[in-house]
DNA sequence: CTGAAAGCGCTAACAC
DNA sequence: GTGTTAGCGCTTTCAG
């Protein structure tokens, strides 16, 4: 059926090992013989069998990306995917993608094949949700080099620097002269970034001698708008918002517009988000942009280091956010 | 280094093939022996080597997903990924993801390994951009079962039914009593869906004895808003819009709000989009939702059929959009 | 310069 | 019931 080295050997009148050598640019063969073999290979449409090669070489030439099953949220940020794919491409590695069941739906004890078999040279684990303890144990036992993304671990982990980002977001507004700045977070994920961004924001506020304040914890768009409206209706209403993300900015913006407050003239907003940055009406949000692509890239770099030196655990890497200047911030009126 | 069947054989005092048989629940061995072998396997932490198994079996247990490199747009719709991943999971297949260079950046003639080597049992090709002719040729020559997504081919292809969706979007508005309905499309992708959605819309308009009208072809958010504003400022301004997608709805909505037109009271909008549906202010867009997950699922089903019966080319599959009733449509005032 | 021999980890067929 | 033999496609080593 398929074209093997053996067929090329027969076709070109050479031995199997010779063909292998020539196809891999090894050995000291006459140019004439090389050409003959290469011609046969091309003519027959030869494609090396990766599995056989892996078997022989003892490596797979592939790494796996484990993502959690989350019906709602974006499970695989495209920037990160791009970063990973280009990073792997440079090293001639393939990417295998597997969904990891999260804590809730692990009832039936399903374990993905990637953890029960040996089929990749390393693991990239995008830890956005709650992976069952059992899975984490399995990953440990697997003894395959692993790098975690978006987790908060001492070693072998790549994460965005949310504290720094929170601080810089607040500092941007403080530098413009804002004093009453509130942190709004309507996400309900429980991810550590929620707290970290607040911590950074609060640190900047403290340094400026100002009180920090955090809003959120309300479910449903209507109730979020109502809460935002209450905030903006206060006597000493805030002049600026640090918003956890798009889902938090929307209720705030809608409430503001509804109350006749203009953005950015009457209310400034900095928020966090992925690429590409989003708009509010015709205005680009001033955004602390998650360095997704770079995270993917760095994760691959770390993983390949761990693959070549399996014993060396690596210090985790914090990646700073990009700051994207939009049109949703102005000095307070 | 790693635990092989051979080590289990030594540890349990059995032969290599016997261990293999027992691990694969084959042969007629005594329960006692089975237990002995399984115990050894567990104790040593055995993980079957997938590459060796593939070599022996002549199949890879994996399919590849080819996506195009597009820095801007979402290259891998998450719904589709989910559909593919769950579909493959049911058949115990792995997913390999590869980026395919698009027409423009193929100058250097880079060919991904997935096309030069034999390393998957089939290909899923998400054809959103312009893949170089040379790549398509290579895919043909590869002789590996392939299914195309989002392309418009007679065979071996899964696509959403854009014509039907365009028609249904218009019909929804017509049924509410709208007569002046305009199709707005600010996408610049040149994807066939642009035209197909219009064709469906136009067909519904024609059937109602009304004139179809198409707006778009303008670049930059400001100019789009300006054009939208002009449209809504006309004497016989439209009372409803069928919008190609979020990027087209935004300028329209912004212009409407700015001109004091309320949505949906003064202007109704139906648009096309992925999941989850998006909001305009506090209102969910009435949306024709791309059946991403189902497309992924069906594509896998078709691909596995082609893998088991390689000669049988399959008729392409059109998948109907889901209709999601939002709050952006109302009868004309 | 080239080919014979050996082996990667695994499985199918067939002895005994 | 279990072990022997053979072989998947490929690469490495080494003899000639």
Q: Could you give a quick summary of the protein structure above?
A:
Chain A is α/β, with parallel strands linked by helices and 333 residues long.
What keyword list fits this structure?
homodimer; 333 residues; alpha/beta; 434 Repressor (Amino-terminal Domain); Rossmann fold; 3 domains; six-stranded parallel β-sheet; six-stranded mixed β-sheet; 12 helices; 14 strands; elongated; DNA-binding
Describe the structure.
- 2 copies of one chain form a homodimer.
- The longest helix of chain A has 17 residues, at about 290-310.
- Chain A is built from 12 helices and 14 strands.
- The first copy, chain A, is elongated and about 90 Å long.
- Chain A has 3 domains: about 5-50, lambda repressor-like DNA-binding domains (434 Repressor (Amino-terminal Domain), Orthogonal Bundle), CATH 1.10.260; about 60-160 and about 295-320, Response regulator (Rossmann fold, 3-Layer(aba) Sandwich); about 160-290, Rossmann fold (3-Layer(aba) Sandwich).
- The first copy, chain A, has about 325 residues and is an alpha/beta fold.
- Chains A and B meet through helix 4, helix 5, strand 2, helix 6 and helix 10 of A and helix 4, helix 5, strand 2, helix 6 and helix 10 of B.
- Strand 2 of chain A pairs antiparallel with strand 2 of chain B, so a sheet runs across the interface.
């Amino acid at each position: 059926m398929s074209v093997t080295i053996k067929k090329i050997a027969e076709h070109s009148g050479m031995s199997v090992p010779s063909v292998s050598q020539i196809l891999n640019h090894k050995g000291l063969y006459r140019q004439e013989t090389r050409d003959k073999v290469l011609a046969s290979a091309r003519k027959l449409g030869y494609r090396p069998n990766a599995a056989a090669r892996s078997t022989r070489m003892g490596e797979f030439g592939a790494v796996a990306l484990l993502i959690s099953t989350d019906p709602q949220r974006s499970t695989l940020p495209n920037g990160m995917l791009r970063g990973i794919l280009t990073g792997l491409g440079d090293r001639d590695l393939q990417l295998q993608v597997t969904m990891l069941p999260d804590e809730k739906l692990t009832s039936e004890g399903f374990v993905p094949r990637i953890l029960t078999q040996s089929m990749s040279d390393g693991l990239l684990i995008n830890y956005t949700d709650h992976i069952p303890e059992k899975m984490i144990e399995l990953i440990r036992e697997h003894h395959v080099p692993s790098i975690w993304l978006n987790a908060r671990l001492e070693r072998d982990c790549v994460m965005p620097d949310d504290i720094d980002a929170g601080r810089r977001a607040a500092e941007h507004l403080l530098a413009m002269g804002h004093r009453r700045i509130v942190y709004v977070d309507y996400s309900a994920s429980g991810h550590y970034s929620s707290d970290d961004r607040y911590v950074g924001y609060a640190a900047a506020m403290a340094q400026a001698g100002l009180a920090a304040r955090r809003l959120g914890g309300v479910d449903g768009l209507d109730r979020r708008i109502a809460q935002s409206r209450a905030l903006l209706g206060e006597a000493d209403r805030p002049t600026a918002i640090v918003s956890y993300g798009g889902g938090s900015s929307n209720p705030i913006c809608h409430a503001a517009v509804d109350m006749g407050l203009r953005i950015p003239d009457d209310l400034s907003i900095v928020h966090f988000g992925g690429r590409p940055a989003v708009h509010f009406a015709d205005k680009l949000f001033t955004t602390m942009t998650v360095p997704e692509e770079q995270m993917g890239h760095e994760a691959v770099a770390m993983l390949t280091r761990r693959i070549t030196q399996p014993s060396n655990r690596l210090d985790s890497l914090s990646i700073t956010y990009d700051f994207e200047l939009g049109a949703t911030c102005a000095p307070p009126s």
